[in-house]
Each structure stands twice: as C-alpha cells, then as structure tokens.
Structure to design on (342 residues):
C-alpha cells in the first residue's frame, strides 16, 4: 500500500492533543455543573440523566471519524493496473549553424550564445513534442535523434562551440538535408503531418544547392522556420589562441574578415517552402511566434506507451468516516426514560 498524499498523515499527530482537549473540556463541564447545582451531591441529580458511557462512545466515534477522514485525504492506493497511453505531438528538428562566423558579436553576447538561449526558450514553450538536434558547419551531423527529453537537447546545445562539427566553412544545404533525414527516416518520405525545422544561422553558405534542398522540404510537407542570427551590417569574427581571445579572423591579405547576416539567402528559402523568416532579437519575440506556429501544426501519434496506475482506495476510509459521524449523531447523551426511572 502507498499514499498519494502522505503529508496529510501528519494530521494524525494532532489526534492525541484533541483527545486531551476533550478530557479537559469534560472536567471543566463537571466543575461548572457542580457550581451551578450548589455542590457535588446536588450535581448527581443532573448527571443521572446523562449516560457517561454514551459520551465516551460518542467521543471515540468522533475520533475514529477524524482519523478515517485523514486517511482518506492521504489517498491510500494499492493494486496496480497498466494502461496504454497514446503520445501525440509535433516532430521538430532544431538545426543549428556552428560555423566560426556564429562567434560574431553583432547580437549580444554572440550569435551562437543568442541561438543557445533562444533554443532553450523554444523548448520550454513546446513541451510534449519530440525534438531532434542537427548541427552543421562544413558538414552536417545529427547530434541527437528525435526525443521527448528536452533536457538532453539542452545539455547538448550548451556544449556546442563554433566549429564544433567537422570541416570548415558553412554547408547550409547539407544541414537542411540532414534535418530532413532526421524527420523522415522512421516515418517514410512525406508521411504524417506535424513536422518542422527551426533553423538558426547567419545565412552564410559556401556550398550552394539550397534550391534543391528547399524543394525536398516542400515535397515532404516540412515547414522551416528560419531565424537569422546577426545583423546586415556585420561584425568581425573573434578567434582564440591558446584558450584566450587572440583578436579577429583575417583573410590571406591580412585584412579583418567581416561576417554579415545574409538575409537575401534565407528569405527565398522560406518563400519556396511555406515557412517563415525571423531576424533574431534579444527580446526573443520571434521565439514566441515560432512556438505558437508549431503548436498549431497537426499533431501526429508517436505510439502508445504502457503506464502503471495505482488503484485509488480512499473510498474505504471515507465510508468509515461518514458511518462513524452518522453513528455519533444518532447516539444521544441522555439516557432512555426507562433507564432513568430505574
């Protein structure tokens, strides 16, 4: 046996105190009766009309009723049965650009840091949905397949650093294809509603092929939500040397490289697929809009899981409590007339 609300059992500790209070009240009542009657001898005339055993039984019934009511409030449970619970939701791939340009600081504190925080906010706003994590730089990689465990996704995102994936540069089309693969491997191509990609990138693309990748998403009914990280004005790219900041990235001619938000690359991507584009902001209002749009997508069944459920047995002590209270009400203090006459 177990209790669903065991904290209510602490109220049982108050019962002895209530019993002592009842005894004190009984003594005070006897003393008051003696003062009223003018002495103990006269008070016996009045006591003879009241059954002392009846009062004891009534007090015990009240105590039993309180104890049973406390047990009922603690919700005793025993006996287990298993039930099948169907999980439904939307499949979402978080696609994160981890190229070196995401270290630029034209959105505070940096493009990648903004993306990390925005992903955390997004996950908190879409509970119950399965999420996968894909990263890309020179090469795309499925960091985590679809899972309802958003905590695992957060831990993986927090560990990502610029150029944490293989290769150099940015292959945006490969990232989109890998995100598509994370969505269609189990369902089959084009199967089922409720699939979306949330892409965080600055739009730099060194490989091309975006039109073909976008056509594949459109064919499979996958909705991309694209968040542009950075600003069109751009910023230099910080680099580290021996674990410390060592200036900014330079080209072969020794000039500081400036990376810019390439919105002209990202906007056509969403226009051809029915998605939406947002420029990242520190207020993250774009994340609220993306979360709302995802929650409006048609949910699909993820499958059924078996869940153990304890049988509620609070009805048993509750019946005892009501029965004891009813008996206490029906049982009066006064003796029957025949008893008094004898």
């Amino acid at each position: 046996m177990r209790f669903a609300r065991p904290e209510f059992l602490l109220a049982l500790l108050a019962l002895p105190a209530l019993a002592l209070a009842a005894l004190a009240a009984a003594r005070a009542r006897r003393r008051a009766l003696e003062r009223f009657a003018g002495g103990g001898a006269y008070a016996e005339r009045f006591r003879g009309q009241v059954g002392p055993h009846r009062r004891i039984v009534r007090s015990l019934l009240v105590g039993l009723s309180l104890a049973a009511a406390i047990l009922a409030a603690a919700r005793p449970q025993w006996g287990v049965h298993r039930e099948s619970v169907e999980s439904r939701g939307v499949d979402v791939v978080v696609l994160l650009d981890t190229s070196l340009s995401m270290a630029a600081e034209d959105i505070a504190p940096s493009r990648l840091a903004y993306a990390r925080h925005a992903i955390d906010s997004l996950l908190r706003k879409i509970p119950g949905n399965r999420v996968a994590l894909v990263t890309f730089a020179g090469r795309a990689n499925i960091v985590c397949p679809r899972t309802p465990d958003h905590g695992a996704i957060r831990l993986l995102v927090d560990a990502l650093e610029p150029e944490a994936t293989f290769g150099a540069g940015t292959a945006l089309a490969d990232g989109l294809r890998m995100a598509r693969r994370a969505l269609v491997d189990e369902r089959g191509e084009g199967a089922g509603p409720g699939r979306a990609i949330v892409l965080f990138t600055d739009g730099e693309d060194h490989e091309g092929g975006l039109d073909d990748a976008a056509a594949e998403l459109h064919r499979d009914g996958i909705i991309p939500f694209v968040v542009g990280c950075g600003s069109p004005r751009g910023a230099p790219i910080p680099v580290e040397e021996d674990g410390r900041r060592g200036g900014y990235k330079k080209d072969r001619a020794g000039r500081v490289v400036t990376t810019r938000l390439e919105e002209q690359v990202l906007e056509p991507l969403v226009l051809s697929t029915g998605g939406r584009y947002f420029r990242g902001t520190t207020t993250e209002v774009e994340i609220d809009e993306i979360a709302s749009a995802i929650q409006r997508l048609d949910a699909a069944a993820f499958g059924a899981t078996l869940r153990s459920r304890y049988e509620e047995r609070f009805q048993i002590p509750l019946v005892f409590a009501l029965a004891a209270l009813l008996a206490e009400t029906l049982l009066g203090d006064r003796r029957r007339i025949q008893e008094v006459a004898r």
User: Anything to note?
Assistant: Residues 2-75+314-341 form one domain. Residues 203 and 262 are 5 Å apart (CA to CA).
